[in-house]
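Researcher: Structure prediction, please.
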Amino acid sequence: MEGASFGAGRAGGAIDPVDFLKQPQTILRVTTWIFSIVVFGSIVNECYVNKDSQNPELLCIFNENESACSYGIAVGIIAFFGCIFFFVVDLYFQQISSVKDRKRAVLLDLGFSGFLSFLWFVAFCFLANQWQRTTMSKGVSQGADAARAAITFSFFSIIVWVALAVKALQRYRLGTDMSLFATDQFATDPNAAYPGYPTGSGIESTETYQSPPFTETLDANPKGYQVPAY
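Model: Predicted structure follows.
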């Protein structure tokens, strides 16, 4: 069982950078990494505006609700570092020789992807709701494009993270099926001998043999025959 499992090749195999970058899972991670930068970057740089020219205080563009901006930034940063972490895990996943460690990595990926999908869904609903309640002003109009970008890419992030969760679930099911196959086909003890053909004791029994046919007990002096005297 210390071989190919959970969607990766046998442990210790060489990693082809081109094939790795072409994997759907890698493309999805890079995509959601870019989306996270767009979301928290837009909020930090352009979603804090002045209410009017006489008030220098910067307020959150989403209905002046500081919680909306803070939540969007927090989810974006979590997604940013999470993508980097799991990108590194995917890069070295094939070097993991233990099936149990591979299983833990896949389950962690599945749980984190599902959790981020939920966080992005909440972020999209929260930001969209607060943006609808926002009163347009000169300051708000200046950061309107950034606010719309944050909402739009929050929605796209939901789709990408759900896709990552589905990919992790597929890898988990694939690894589980292969583990069951290996358990049924091979002995659990790696030192156990492979079952061969049954062999005898090496001692042949003479009881199984029968007397050869056409053998008779010869009488030295058969009846009716006399030895001539010379």
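Model: Helices lie at 17-22, 24-46, 66-92, 99-132, 138-142, 144-185.
Researcher: Thanks, that helps.
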